[in-house]
Structures are given as C-alpha cells and as structure tokens.
Write a structure and sequence with these properties.
The protein folds into two domains: 36 residues, Orthogonal Bundle (Arc Repressor Mutant, subunit A); 37 residues. It contains six helices and no strands. Helix 4 crosses helix 5 and helix 5 packs across helix 6.
C-alpha cells in the first residue's frame, strides 16, 4: 500500500499531541492518519516511545511481593499495580517467592 504525502504541519501536530500525553489512536483519529503513521513520525523524531504498561522496577517488584505475601492472588496483585499477571509472576519467581497453588 503506497504511503501518502502528509499535509504540512501534520508531523508537528503529531509530536505536540504525543508530547502532551495524547493516546496514539486519538492523535491518529484526529488527524486522519493511521496509528502506524503516528509511530513512524514519533520514531523518526527521536522522541522516546511511552510505555503503556509500567516497567517492573525494584519498587514495583517489592510492592508485588508484599501484596502476594499478604494473600492476594496473582490476578489481584496484577490489578492493583497495573501490570499483567504473567509479569507479576515472573517478578515473584525472579525474587524467589514460592507461588501458591490455585
């Protein structure tokens, strides 16, 4: 599928929206372009991409370990800290936490 020329100022509007914290899908919809085009413009600008899921840093890992030790399930810990349950499980195992059986 051929790429179309972007109208003047589109890249600037994409970057302004992205830096302001707007969602990629909202920027794309507002400007009539695809999500991929938004990502392409952001990447080309050197702007770091935002992560939609928090990174499991030491503080978040410690919090997950505490919540799990208090008896919360992987799913409930996941909901509380905002990361997928599989990520919580990996973090717990990396910290030598013994997982409970269902």
């Amino acid at each position: 599928m051929p790429r179309h020329e972007l109208s003047e100022g589109t890249a600037d509007k994409v970057l302004a929206g992205y830096r302001a914290g707007s969602l990629v899908k909202d920027i794309a919809s507002e400007l009539g372009i695809s999500d991929d085009t938004v990502y392409r413009i952001v990447n080309a600008s050197g702007q770091p991409l935002r992560r939609s899921i928090p990174r499991m840093d030491e503080a978040l890992t410690n919090r997950a370990c505490e919540l799990y030790a208090q008896g919360l399930s992987l799913a409930k810990v996941s909901l509380k800290i905002g990361v997928p349950a599989t990520t919580v499980k990996r973090a717990l195992l990396a910290n030598e936490v013994r997982l409970r059986h269902r």
